[in-house]
Amino acid sequence: MAKIIDCTLFHNEFMMLDLRFGILKNKVDKFVITEANSTFSGHSKEFKLKAWIEEHHSDIANRVDVIEVDDMPSNPNPWIKEAYQRNAVSRGLDQSHESDIVMFLDIDEIPNVDRIEEGVSNDDINALDQSFYYYYFNLYKGRWTKPSACLFRNLPVSPQMARGMPLRPIIKEAGWHFSYVMPPEAISEKISAFSHQELNKSNFNDPKKISARIQRRADLFDRKQQGDLKAVPLDASFPRFIRENSDAYADFLVTP
After folding, report:
1. Please, what are the domains in the chain?
2. In 3-state terms, what secondary structure has residue 13?
3. Name one Pfam family in it (predicted).
């Protein structure tokens, strides 16, 4: 029987991973998660994920394959490091079967597995059309189509190449992108570690300035926005797990 495999990369986003497991654990057969011992910006870090999963999600630990990437490239280019860590999910796919559905997403890109099962192509890599939210789970920004999914037999390229590959057939309403849904201090830490190091400046990574931008609903990096961010009701279009646990996520929900 074909399996559903969720592949992602991790950098200390524990709240988002906890949410991901809550939404997907009854939909996904296997999780493949890469964790590196250095950031994309080149700073050393400890492996934390295996111990955290054993402590907080022991019920699914046997379905989570954590790939500890301890051989990150020495090349200082953060994009090369990011691609290397993303491609390392392939190390957890060696036992996959041709008909398995493999999904490649970032940690804050949550797939709608039902839609993907219905729409996955028999002979191509699909783009996943996702609802895009910013700062809050229900502060709508627009659409997002970078994640990918395909049958394992249709993955002739690397996971990195599959992401954002042009001319992919699109599966509509295939998930939710919850971007920067975290406290200002965590956003600052993310900026210090991620690939866009040209944005790692005091004007952007100061938690107080981040908090002020969130309150104004302004872009995190002062980019021109296409339309205003819009608070929307937490309705049936959202994952049931968020709706049923809205009290636990109250700090990251905004009143429409």
Report:
1. 1-256 (3.90.550)
2. coil
3. Glyco_transf_17
